C-alpha cells in the first residue's frame, strides 16, 4: 500500500540513507530515494503493512455488523398502525412519531459528521449504544403503559413517546455515520471504493428486512385460536434495545480509521498545487505547519542526526502540529464544499427524491390499509406491512450493492481520493463507461414510476399488486441513498467525508417531514368523510380514524412523483449545466 510504503521510506531513509547537499535549493535530500522505493516492490509486505490491512478488515466487518443492525427505524410501518389501533393515535399522531425519528435521524448529521472527522468513529458508536438502549426501553415502557390505560395520547405519555423516538433517530444517525465513514476513509484509495461504501449502506437497508422478519415470525402475538397475530411491540422494542446496545459497544472497540494522516497529506499536496494554501500562515515557509511538506525543510546545519529527524514530520513531538494541520485542511475543504454551487443543486435533488421515499416507507402500513375497504370481500388473506417492509429492504439492498459494484466497473474514477478542485488528470478511455449520475437518474425515475402506479389507482382493491410499488420505490430509494455518498467521495474527497455527507444528509429531514404532513392531511380529510351511501369502494370511517380508497392518497403520490422529476432536473443541471461538473472537467 502506498501509505505504508511512504511511512517505511521515511523511517528507513532517515536512518540508513546518506544525505547530500543540493546547492541550487540549499536543502538536504536523501540520495537514491527512487531506487530505494523501487526496490520495495520486490519485498514482501512489512509487518506494518500487514497490521494496517488487518485493522482495515476488522473495521470493515464491524462497520457492516453495525449497519446490519442500525436500520431499525425503517420498520416503523410494521407497528405504526398498531399505535393507531391499540393506543388510538390519529394519523397525525402516528406521523408525529415518524417525523421525530426522521428529524433526529438527519438534522444532527452535519454536527456528528464534524465530530467523526475530527475524533474518529468510535465515540459515535459508543453514544449510539447508550442512546439506543435508552430510547427503545423508554418506548417499550410507554407502550405497555398505554395498553394498560387503554389510550396512549393522554397527559404526558404521547410527548414522552415522541421523545423516545427522537432518541432512537439520533442513535441511528450516530451508528450509521460511524460505519459508513469508517469504510469511506479506509477504502477510499482503492479501485473498489464504491462497493466498499455500498456494502454498509446496503446493510443498513437489509437491517429493516431481517428485523421485520424476526418481529413477524418470532416476536409476534398469539391469537386466541393459536394463530399468529401482529408483532408484539413491547418485546420487539426490548429486543432492539439489547441488540443495538451490544452492537454499538462492539463498534466502539472495532471501528477505526487506518493511516488517516496519509489522507491529510494527500489533501495538503493537492491544496498546495491548487494555490489554496498561498498566503496561509500555517503552511508558509517558517509557519508552524510548513515543516515536512514538499521538499525537506531548509537548514544550514550539517548535523546528520538532526537532519535525519527533520525527515520525519510525524514523530511524537509533532502530534499537536498534526492535529492543527488536520483541522485546517478539514475546515478548508468544508468551506470549499459549501461554496460549490453544484453541491446545493445536488443536495436539493437528493431532498426531492429521498423525501417522498421516506414518507412512503414510514406510511406503508396505512397505505395498505386504504386498499381494503372492510365491506369488500377478498379471496385469501390481504397483504401485510411486514411483507412489503421486507420487499423494500430486499430491493433496496440489491440496488445498493448493484450500483456500488457496477459504478466501480463502468464509471470513470479519478486516481486520487482528494477533492477535485480543478480538472482531473487525463484517464485512459474505457471502451464503455457510464457516469454515476446516469445511474442515479435512472433509479430516481424508477422510484417515480412506483409512485405513479400507486397514485393512478392501479393498485386499489388489488393489494396483490402492491409489490410493484414497494419494489420500485425500494430499488430507487436504495440506489439513490447509495450513489449520493459515493458521488460525494469522488468529487469532494474522503478525508472530510463525514462532514460533507452530513451536510447533504440533513436535507431529507425537511422532505420527509413535509411529505409526511401532506400525506397525513390528505388521509385525515378522507377519514373524516363518511363513506358514500350504498358503496364500498371508498370513503372514511367518519370518526377520523381510518380511510379507504384512492382519494386517501392519490393526490399526495402524484405530487411526490412530480417532486422526483424536479429533482432529476436539478441533478442534471449540476452535472451538465453552466459551470457544472462536465464543464469543470470533473471525473464522475
UniProtKB/TrEMBL annotation:
Any one GO CC term of this protein is:
fungal-type vacuole membrane
GO MF term (any one): transmembrane transporter activity
Which compartment or compartments is the protein found in?
Vacuole membrane
- State whether keyword Cell membrane applies: no
Q: Which UniProt keywords apply?
A: Membrane, Transmembrane, Transmembrane helix, Transport, Vacuole
- List, alphabetically, the SUPFAM superfamilies matched: MFS general substrate transporter
This protein's source sits in the domain of life called Eukaryota
Q: Any stretches that span the bilayer, and where are they?
A: 58-82, 94-112, 124-143, 163-183, 195-213, 233-255, 439-460, 466-494, 501-522, 555-575
Q: What is its main location?
A: membrane
Q: Membrane topology for this entry?
A: Multi-pass membrane protein
- Per its UniProt record, what Pfam families does this chain match? MFS_1 (PF07690)
The record's annotation in Gene3D superfamilies points to: MFS general substrate transporter like domains (1.20.1250.20)
PANTHER family linked? TRANSPORTER MCH1-RELATED (PTHR21576:SF45), UNCHARACTERIZED NODULIN-LIKE PROTEIN (PTHR21576)
What family name appears in the similarity comment? Belongs to the major facilitator superfamily.
Recorded protein name is Probable transporter MCH1
- UniProt source species: Coniochaeta pulveracea
> Organism classification, top ranks?
Eukaryota, Fungi, Dikarya, Ascomycota, Pezizomycotina
